[in-house]
Each structure stands twice: as C-alpha cells, then as structure tokens.
Design goal:
The protein has three domains: 50 residues, Uridine Diphospho-n-acetylenolpyruvylglucosamine Reductase, domain 2, CATH 3.30.43; 115 residues, 2-Layer Sandwich (Uridine Diphospho-n-acetylenolpyruvylglucosamine Reductase, domain 3); 116 residues, CO dehydrogenase flavoprotein, C-terminal domain (Enolase-like, domain 1, 2-Layer Sandwich). With 292 residues, it is α+β, with helices and mostly antiparallel strands. Helix 11 packs across helix 12. Bound molecules: flavin-adenine dinucleotide.
Length: 292
C-alpha cells in the first residue's frame, strides 16, 4: 500500500474542508473494510485518508418524528444489537446479520456499504423497499436524496467531490411484514450472488427489491403493480416472481452464472413474498435467511 496522509477531523465541517482541499486525491474512511482492501490492491491510491470516526455527531441510532435515524458511524454490529432495527426494520436487521463475519461487522458500517456502491451491497434491497432517504453534506450545504436515486452505476453515486454521507432515515411503518434473503456460495464471509427484499403492508401493497443482479439495486415495479391490493396466493406469488425478473440484468462472474442468478431470483422472490405475508400475519421476528 502506498503512503498516505491521515487526517482525523472532529466535526463534519472540518471533514468537508479537508475534502474540498484535496478533492479526488482524498477518500473518507469509516470501517475501512472496503477502502483499505482497495488501497492494498492498488485499485485506488488516495494521497489523503479522512477518518470520520472521530466525529461524535455521526454516531446515532434513534426513532423520532416518524422515522428511524442512523448515523454514518453506526456499525453493522450496532444495528444487529438494536431492538429498534430488529422490530421496526427487520429486513435490514437480517441483511446486517448476513454481512461478512463478526470481526468485519464490528468495524464496518451501513453508510460505508452504501458509499462503496458495489452491486452486491447488502444494504440496498432492504433500504429500497422502505424508501429510505440518505443525508449528504458538502460545501454547498445539506441535501436529502432517496436511496433509489443515490446509485448511478457500479461504484458510482450522486456524491459530489466534497460531499459525505452523514446518515440516513427510514420511515416508520405499522402493520407490515418484510424479509431479506441472501444467496451466497457458503456460510461466512462471502458477498451475495443475489439478494432479495420483500415488504407488504396490511392493504396488500407490495414492494420488491433485488440486488447483485444489475449494476445497482432495482425495484421490481411491474411485479409490485401486478400484486397491488391482491391477497397473496401461491399462484400470484409465482406470477409476480416471473414479472420481477424483467427488472434484473444479471451477469456471469466468479460468484455465479447469469442463468443461475435468474433461476434463483425467481425462487427467492416467490419465497420472499410468501414469507413477508406470513410474518405480517403472525408477527414472526426477523430471522437470518441465507440460501446456499
Ligand atoms: C472479508 C469481507 C467480507 C465482506 N462481506 C460483505 C458482505 O457479506 N456483504 C456486503 O455487503 N459487504 C461485505 N463486505 C464489504 C464491506 O465490509 C462493506 O461494504 C462495509 O459495510 C463497508 O463499510 P466500511 O465502514 O468498512 O466502509 P469503508 O471501507 O470505510 O468505506 C467504503 C467506501 O465509502 C467511502 N466512504 C466511507 N464513508 C463515507 C461517507 N460518510 N461519505 C462518503 N463516502 C464515504 C470510502 O472512501 C470508501 O470508498 C465484506 C468485506 C470484507 C473485507
């Protein structure tokens, strides 16, 4: 790894000033579980690393004003240990529980996951089905962006050169069921071959999102519209799963063939629909759901 200058600001303003000063030559740091690996491989070679972990105002996880607020410095482990997340955003809790391993989760963050913006990111699908909003801040001030508008491609986002993500909010919903299903090659540290999140509310509004099967996470809106207002049956779930495939554009890579991804997404969406309805009806808590 090349030498780099290390800066540890104690406020967001200081972090923005440093980023303004060094621009593309600087990278923000949270857990470092993506950043340092990319630096070690020489994929990126920042001259300056701006460590955000010294900024106390980025560490918060609370429910207020009809939403759940999560600060940038909150780790996956802290999400798993949160009763708010487990009860109110169970699909995100399940995704957190399936990220990497305990060691990685103790330092890695949800916000780092979003900002790294790889297609297989665990956080995408559960946040898409809850219409989460991310908070960005830079020299021109603060802005809120729907998570669905945040990604623009593989490792590309709407973040400007001097902007950082300070956190996000997830609207509180009552009487719903949701699930996150990850397909991986084995237990333990492996990125998703495909990820599916399904959400349903008591009025039979369905939301379906898939990750690792297109350049960014996607919402299967055609399938959602088809199911809207309908009480789910096995047949409807199968038809909706077929429609959901129209939203994806998977590739073949070292983790899976394109054909296997398509085949398994069909199964995962159907299972996700059935599981989310069942959870809404029975109040079953979040469970880790990994297909191998
Ligand atoms: C062994 C291993 C297994 C893994 N398994 C999984 C897995 O199962 N699922 C999964 O989704 N991921 C996995 N990952 C990837 C990684 O752990 C996650 O993406 C993690 O959530 C990244 O968070 P971080 O805090 O470490 O980010 P960092 O590495 O600190 O940052 C990631 C990127 O975002 C930028 N950045 C950081 N903070 C901000 C900010 N506030 N504003 C703007 N830009 C910012 C950084 O400059 C960097 O480019 C794995 C990684 C390893 C090493």
């Amino acid at each position: 790894m090349d030498n780099f200058r290390y800066i540890k600001p104690s406020t967001v303003d200081e972090a923005i000033s440093s980023k303004r000063e060094y621009g593309k030559k600087a990278n923000f740091l949270l857990g470092g579980t993506d950043l340092f690996i990319a630096m070690d491989k020489g994929v990126i070679t920042p001259e300056v690393v701006i460590d955000l972990k010294g900024i106390k105002t980025l560490k918060y996880l609370e429910e207020k004003d009809g939403a759940i607020f999560i600060g940038a410095a909150v780790t996956w482990t802290e999400l798993i240990e949160s009763e708010i997340i487990k009860k109110m955003v169970p699909a995100l809790w399940e995704a957190a529980d399936l990220v990497a391993s305990v060691g990685v989760r103790n330092t890695a963050t949800l916000v780092g996951n979003l900002c790294n913006a790889v297609p297989s990111l665990e956080s995408g699908a559960p946040l898409y089905v809850r219409d989460a909003v991310v908070f960005l801040e830079g020299k021109d001030g603060k802005r809120e962006v729907s998570v669905k508008d945040f990604f623009t491609g593989v490792k590309r986002t709407v973040l400007k050169d001097d902007e950082l993500m300070t956190g996000l909010k997830i609207p509180v919903v009552k009487e719903f069921g949701e699930v996150y299903i990850k397909m991986g090659r084995y237990e333990g540290e492996d990125l998703a071959q495909a990820g599916v999140s399904v959400f349903v509310d008591k009025n039979n509004n369905y939301k379906i999102s898939l990750s690792a099967v297109a350049v960014t996470p996607v919402r299967a809106t055609k399938a959602e519209d088809f199911l809207k207002g309908k009480k789910l049956t096995d047949e409807l779930a199968a038809e909706a799963a077929e429609l959901a495939l129209e939203a994806i554009a998977p590739i073949s890579d070292i983790r899976s063939s394109k054909e296997y991804r398509i085949h398994m997404c069909r199964i995962m969406v159907k299972r996700g629909l059935i599981a989310s309805v069942s959870r809404m009806e029975t109040g079953v808590p979040a469970l880790s759901t990994r297909l191998i």
